Amino acid sequence: MRSICAMRSLLAASTFHLRSSPLPRSPSLALPFRLNLPRPSFGPARSISATAAAAKSRGGMEARSAHSGEIHVIVGPMFAGKTTALLRRVQLEAGTGRNVALIKSDKDNRYGLDSVVTHDGTKMPCWALPELSSFQDKLGTEAYDKVDVIGIDEAQFFDDLHDFCCNAADRDGKIVVVAGLDGDYKRNKFGSVLDIIPLADSVTKLTARCELCGRRAFFTLRKTRETKTELIGGADVYMPVCRQHYLDGQIVIEAVQPTRIVLDLERSTVML
Ligand SMILES: Nc1ncnc2c1ncn2[C@@H]1O[C@H](COP(=O)(O)OP(=O)(O)O)[C@@H](O)[C@H]1O
Ligand SMILES: Cc1cn([C@H]2C[C@H](O)[C@@H](COP(=O)(O)O)O2)c(=O)[nH]c1=O
Ligand SMILES: [Zn+2]
């Protein structure tokens, strides 16, 4: 199998296909042939007849792909395990013989651009792109057609998320798994992530642990007074918090002038 390099190169470095390797083994490339196994379900699966009905409602056009596409959305605050869940799903799909490709926004340069990396260091090769519309061009049509599953991380940074997901699932029959922040540090909707909920087969909202009390964390607190919406960072800039500590944290941050603040809300102190 490894000797057939021509087929391998079609799918390039970040389009991979695994037999059955659990995390954190890194993915390898292999032949893009298809096993006719039932798709593992991430949530309620959409039936082919539902897709046909959707195609009809788009003006009687038939779906172009033989497959019914799917869209699965994973949201939650930072550190909730969104990337971990995305990588697991993609590996699961690859393990059943499907060709998978992983994309992240090139704005996320935290751990280099060649991989999607979780906060605890699990990584997989990816395409780092400025916009999703460049994916098909980058891959080439032949390789794109062979991809069964597209994973998208840091989805909040892609302005063309809605159109890409729509085309990939409805027109091209791809399984699209999307991970991203539903809300920004102000708890406003972030990018277009919420706009794809009406397109989705399943939506999973994950929670983290509040860094200050250990309860479930639904929100991401920014620890600095920087106000631009997009600010790349990790635990140095953000922390997952419960509702109470989100509200307490906002009060503390607004009351303090400097740009960098260390919060110690449990002891009601703020260190500058
Ligand atoms: N407050 C935290 N600070 C740093 N790392 C954390 C924190 N909470 C959880 N983690 C680690 O982050 C991992 C989840 O990382 P990841 O899947 O990249 O999350 P997400 O994509 O939702 O930000 C957890 O398994 C844990 O090891
Ligand atoms: C809340 C918030 C986050 N960001 C940035 C910070 C990180 O670079 C990513 C989120 O990464 P993760 O994989 O979910 O941990 O988004 C931002 O730009 N603005 C925000 O308000
Ligand atoms: Zn808390």
Automatic annotation (TrEMBL):
Name of the protein this chain belongs to: Thymidine kinase
Catalyses which reaction(s): thymidine + ATP = dTMP + ADP + H(+)
Similarity comment: Belongs to the thymidine kinase family.
Keyword ATP-binding listed: yes
GO molecular function: ATP binding; identical protein binding; metal ion binding; thymidine kinase activity
Keyword terms: ATP-binding, DNA synthesis, Kinase, Metal-binding, Nucleotide-binding, Transferase, Zinc
Alphabetical GO biological process terms: DNA biosynthetic process; double-strand break repair; response to UV-C; thymidine metabolic process
